[in-house]
TrEMBL record:
<dbReference type="GO" id="GO:0006098">
    <property type="term" value="P:pentose-phosphate shunt"/>
</dbReference>
<comment type="pathway">
    <text>Carbohydrate degradation.</text>
</comment>
<keyword id="KW-0464">Manganese</keyword>
<feature type="binding site">
    <location>
        <position position="32"/>
    </location>
    <ligand>
        <name>a divalent metal cation</name>
    </ligand>
</feature>
<dbReference type="InterPro" id="IPR013785">
    <property type="entry name" value="Aldolase_TIM"/>
</dbReference>
<dbReference type="InterPro" id="IPR000056">
    <property type="entry name" value="Ribul_P_3_epim-like"/>
</dbReference>
<comment type="function">
    <text>Catalyzes the reversible epimerization of D-ribulose 5-phosphate to D-xylulose 5-phosphate.</text>
</comment>
<dbReference type="Pfam" id="PF00834">
    <property type="entry name" value="Ribul_P_3_epim"/>
</dbReference>
<protein>
    <recommendedName>
        <fullName>Ribulose-phosphate 3-epimerase</fullName>
        <ecNumber>5.1.3.1</ecNumber>
    </recommendedName>
</protein>
<keyword id="KW-0479">Metal-binding</keyword>
<dbReference type="InterPro" id="IPR026019">
    <property type="entry name" value="Ribul_P_3_epim"/>
</dbReference>
<dbReference type="GO" id="GO:0004750">
    <property type="term" value="F:D-ribulose-phosphate 3-epimerase activity"/>
</dbReference>
<dbReference type="GO" id="GO:0046872">
    <property type="term" value="F:metal ion binding"/>
</dbReference>
<feature type="binding site">
    <location>
        <position position="65"/>
    </location>
    <ligand>
        <name>substrate</name>
    </ligand>
</feature>
<dbReference type="InterPro" id="IPR011060">
    <property type="entry name" value="RibuloseP-bd_barrel"/>
</dbReference>
<keyword id="KW-0862">Zinc</keyword>
<feature type="binding site">
    <location>
        <begin position="196"/>
        <end position="197"/>
    </location>
    <ligand>
        <name>substrate</name>
    </ligand>
</feature>
């Protein structure tokens, strides 16, 4: 089942409540929350405080994408603020296996993200335990960048492994996705589609989300 996860990073932070109420009028079930520390990536976004303040206003699944160094230090914070899925970067921690177990011990779904330069092979021993794999199709740090086509192969390989081994992880793609190029990610195997600027900078947010779901229905 294909789903869209609009990335709040491109929303108007003055108007978050209004954007969330617009999303409520669509089929969207997820919201993607990009946490950046100015260290793992060259940008600073928001942290658990903002996420916590949104929680009472929406039932959307909080898909928290941690672009922070040493994510193990902050797991409790991202559990307590209301995340449903906590995804960290393979490149950001020395002990990814124990971090996955830690996230799951709180009853949350655990995901790992790969930078464009990282290989899916580095993840192989972790895949059976993962709820989600996030393939970055831009260099993490900013919204509005161009999709890196070479990442399609990584998505395809992750789909093959998932099918062969009967694993449960959701394949998520993040970065440079638009309603005009989303089909190539879908056809490679992406199931959860992150889109930031294309959704929140659209003339009509609701129409744009509907456009994605119309495309999803064709698959
Ligand atoms: O994690 C990130 C960027 O690091 C993303 O989630 C972006 O926020 C996606 O934005 P667009 O590329 O869709 O504008
Ligand atoms: Co993201």
């Amino acid at each position: 089942m294909l789903e869209l996860a609009p990335s709040l990073l491109s929303a108007n932070f003055y108007n978050l409540k209004e954007d969330l109420s617009k999303l409520k009028k669509t089929d969207v079930k997820y919201i993607h929350l990009d946490v950046m520390d100015g260290n793992f990536v060259p940008n600073i976004s928001f942290g658990p405080g903002l996420i916590k303040s949104l929680r009472p206003y929406t039932d959307l699944i909080f898909d928290t994408h941690l672009m922070i160094e040493n994510p193990e230090k902050y797991v409790e914070d991202f559990v307590n603020c209301g995340s449903d899925i906590i995804t960290f970067h393979l490149e950001a921690t020395k002990h990814p296996h124990s971090l996955v177990q830690k996230i799951k011990s709180y009853g949350k779904k655990a995901g790992i993200s790969l930078n464009p330069s990282s290989l899916e092979q580095d993840l192989v021993y972790l895949l059976e335990d993962l709820d989600l794999v996030l393939v970055m199709s831009v260099n993490p740090g900013f919204g509005g960048q161009k999709f890196i086509d070479s990442q399609l192969n990584k998505i395809e390989n992750l789909r093959k492994i998932k099918e062969e081994k009967n694993y449960n992880y959701i394949i998520e793609v993040d970065g440079g996705i638009k309603s005009t190029n989303v089909t190539k990610a879908i056809e490679s195997g992406a199931e959860l589609i992150v889109s930031g600027s294309d959704v929140f900078k659209a003339e009509d947010l609701i129409d744009r989300v509907n456009e994605y779901y119309d495309i999803f229905k064709r698959y």
